[in-house]
Write a structure and sequence with these properties.
This protein is an all-alpha fold. The protein contains eleven helices and no strands.
């Protein structure tokens, strides 16, 4: 499965439809795959939604259905969000254990998991099955709609403007994260970084060596920002529960989380400034020019 435009795409519309259908068809197959388990399935489905949203955002300047389709996939992802939350919290504990496990030792992290499990109600299998069935219906409906998707305009202009708009918002949210330093500000920056990452992946064949470097940098930054967000959510939602159950464990865990946040935030800002060092409009125009050269080279 290729999440990128190809020279074999007859038009920008053809490429957008092909990529969207690939993501949607894979999502349906993942729902039907009983070996994945609900946690993995939900995680994968939310990724598919985000990738389709990244795709339609890229061609937004020439895609009239952008507003409706972006909202549809956003709402579909949100309908599954709480099914993913418990798994994300456990992953946060695992990340802390990987970094501090040898220093702390003993059963500390096992105790944290036990406390977290006790505080989290088990998933209702019938509810999960029902929501996955509803998600499947929504993906089927979206698949049918892709047959009517049309992107109007010249590809270099549309793609250049689409890239530039997301890039511009990334620059803005980077500044807000640096000035405010709040979890909300960093989370908004993370969302723009992920869209830029998706855009570079979609355009990776246009100039492979140059764009690959941006893909690697954006992926690293998005991962670090994701870790920072998970720590913030854990600190605000789960840590108070642990502190009430075992104040000593809560105090130690709170200190570990704070240490990770203080390590990650400056690193994210550093990588952000490097990734978004150029001005948005010229960067977008360059992407449009790269597209034209890529297409022209294939015809010679």
């Amino acid at each position: 499965m290729s999440y990128s435009f190809r020279l074999s795409d007859h038009s920008l519309t053809h490429g957008v439809r092909r990529i969207a259908r690939s993501q949607i068809e894979t999502a349906i197959a993942e729902i039907d795959d009983q070996t994945l388990g609900p946690v993995t399935t939900v995680h994968q489905l939310r990724k598919r939604c985000k990738k389709v949203r990244g795709l339609v955002r890229l061609v937004r300047p020439g895609f009239k259905a952008y507003g409706d389709e972006n909202a549809a996939f956003r709402d579909l992802s949100r309908s599954l969000a709480d099914l993913r939350d418990a798994g994300a919290l456990l992953e946060t504990v695992t990340a802390l254990e990987a970094r501090f496990g040898e220093v702390i030792g003993g059963t500390f992290f096992a105790d944290v998991r036990e406390t977290l499990a006790a505080a989290s109600p088990p998933s209702d299998d019938a509810d999960v099955t029902e929501r996955l069935a509803a998600a499947r219906d929504a993906f089927e409906a979206a698949l049918a709609r892709t047959h009517d998707w049309k992107v109007k305009g010249e590809a270099p202009d549309i793609l250049g403007r689409g890239v530039a708009e997301t890039y511009k918002r990334a620059v803005k949210t980077l500044k807000q994260a640096e000035e405010g330093g709040t979890p909300v500000a960093f989370h908004e920056f993370r969302k723009r970084v992920k869209y830029h990452w998706y855009h570079m992946r979609l355009l990776k064949h246009v100039w492979p060596k140059m764009i690959h470097a941006r893909i690697v940098e954006a992926r690293h930054l998005a991962t670090s920002l994701g870790d920072l967000h998970d720590f913030a959510v854990f600190r605000l939602t789960v840590l108070p529960l642990i502190e009430r159950t075992d104040p000593k464990v809560g105090e130690v865990l709170g200190g570990l989380i704070e240490a990770e946040e203080q390590r990650l935030a400056p690193d994210c800002l550093h990588h952000g400034h490097r990734l978004f060092a150029e001005k948005p409009r010229p960067f977008g125009e360059s992407i449009g020019a790269y597209w034209t050269t890529w297409q022209d080279t294939a015809q010679t």
